[in-house]
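The data layer described in this paper is built around a simple, fixed record for each protein. Such a record has a labelled line for the sequence and another for the C-alpha cells. For reference, a complete record is included directly beneath this paragraph.
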Amino acid sequence: MPEVKSYQPGMFCWTDLGTTDVAAAKRFYGDLFGWTYEDIQTPMGPYGMAYLGGKDVAAVNALSADQAKQGVPPHWNLYFSVKNLDESAKRATSLGGKLLLPPMDATEAGRMAVVADPSGASFCLWQAKSHPGAKLVNEPGAINWAELECRNVEGCKAFYSELFGWRHDTQDMGGMPYTVFKAGEEQRAGMMPMAKGSPADRPSHWTVYFTAASCDATAKKAQGAGAKIVVPATDVPQVGRFAMCQDPQGALFAFLQPARR
C-alpha cells in the first residue's frame, strides 16, 4: 500500500502505547507485528517510534510520571485528526466532553489535546504539522480500526457526530447493536454498548485494531509471548476474523484479519 501522507478531519490517524515496561513492550510488539524502533527525543522524554517497512505506524512509550502516580494502567491512546485543534478542543467541551490535557505543541510534529467523551472514554485530537499520523494502514501490523465500548451509547452518538461531523448507522450484530460512524460512505470508527457482565467499575474505552494476516496465528503467537486472550478468534460476517487481548503489561488491543473481497 502507498504511504499515507495526510488524513481528513475526523479520521483515526495514530496510536501510541503508554506502558510500565517499554523494553518488554517493544519486544512483544516487535515479535508480533515485525516492528522496529527508533527513540525520538522530545522535551517530554524519548518517544519510541515504531516502524514497519521503514514507515512509522505507532509508538511505544513509558506512562507519564503523573499517570504512574495515579495508577493509570498500560493502555493504547487513539488519535483523531482535526483541522484546528483549539477549536475542536473547545467544541468537545461544549458538547459535554472533558479536557484532560489542554492543547499543546508536540515539537514540530503537530499539536495535540486529550479529551474524555460523555461516557468517560479518553481519546486524543491531533492537528498535524510535519507528522500526519501513521504512514501505513490496513496492512499486517498497521492500524485499521478504532472501536468504542461505552456505557452512554446515545450520548456518544450525539457527541461524536457533532464533534467530527460523523453520521451513524446502527445494525444488529448477533443480538448486539453495533454503530458504525461514517463520513459520507467512508467508515471512520465503531461503537458498541459495554458488554453484558462487565464489572461495574470497567470504564468506557477506545480500542485500537491492527491488521493481521492470520487472526488465529497472531492470537497463538501473542498468547505464547505472555498476552491474555480476552476475546478468542471470532468471525464477523462480511468483516473478517478478529481477536482481542491484553499484552503482558495489561494494555488492551485487538487485531483483525479482513474478509476476502
Summary: The chain has a mean pLDDT of 94. The longest helix spans residues 22-33. The helical segments are 22-33, 65-70, 85-94, 153-164, 215-224. The two ends are 16 Å apart (CA to CA).
